[in-house]
Write a structure and sequence with these properties.
Elements: E1 15-17, E2 23-25, H1 41-65, E3 70-74, E4 85-89, E5 99-104, H2 117-122, H3 125-128, E6 134-135, E7 142-145, E8 148-151, H4 158-173, E9 178-184, H5 187-197, H6 199-205, E10 206-212, H7 225-234, E11 235-239, E12 260-263, H8 272-275, H9 277-295
Helix pairs in contact: 4-5, 5-6
Length: 301
Amino acid sequence: MTFPPFPSTIADFGYFFNDFGQLRHLKTGEPYLFQVRPDDHGYNQRRYEALGDVITEHVYQLLEQETHLTRVPVPVNVQEDEPSSFIFVSEDAFTNKDRLLILIHGSGVVRAGQWSRRLIINDSLKKGLGYAVIVLNTNDTHRIINGVRVPVRDCETAEKHGRHVWEHIVEKRAAARHIAVVAHSYGGVVAVNVATEFFASFSARVFAVALTDSVHSFARQKSHPRVAQFFNQVGRNWVSSPEHLDRPLRERHDGTVDVRRVSAGTVTHEMTSWSSFASVFEFLETAYHKKSAGNGEQNDL
């Protein structure tokens, strides 16, 4: 069955982003309404996904125009006749010899720069965007060519994307001595996978790992115990919880080593990054200065 095309701009959908970055209806000022046709869930879902694609392009433009990030294609040796994806990097991503911040988002239809698609459509664009020196794009894994789903080589999965970026871009091109990783939800799985496969370089350069409601599992991912121990030493996981922000939470009962867990100050999974934002960066700054002091270094910036 052929469906008529959906609009190609946010305005044509009847919405706009207000001064607070919230998606609102042009006429009523109300938030996004999913049930446009109450008895047609299929149509509502297709419309939701189409609007999500339009917003993704809008976010890409913001990353390029407002934060001056640029796209770097992946795989790095992509051929002209094959599909490719990309990541976003800052102007000094490969020349800054001091610090590098890597952002890894969650799973699903989230793309680079979006912590959560639901958050962007239903709440605040400012909460949904994440700005970083390197922004991974782990869910952009394929292209539709002549109606056929064609995978992006070396980036067929989120884990493969993370592996490719670390091996071919971070290890070979980034000059920073100190790397911080901030990962949301399934991004924690990607971070653990990278650390497992490249433990020597990861543990030598990463000084802090900040996770927000991560769904990683050292056991399920068959990580060496040293990986869990390293994450326990340099990491913290802000998880959804009714407790106050930063309150330490009970550790695992089975005695296995894991990332230290604290409350994100919200029970909503998609809000954990936003609600813990200030705490995350305070954690990164403290970890950085501790690392620098321990090495007897001075900031090059």
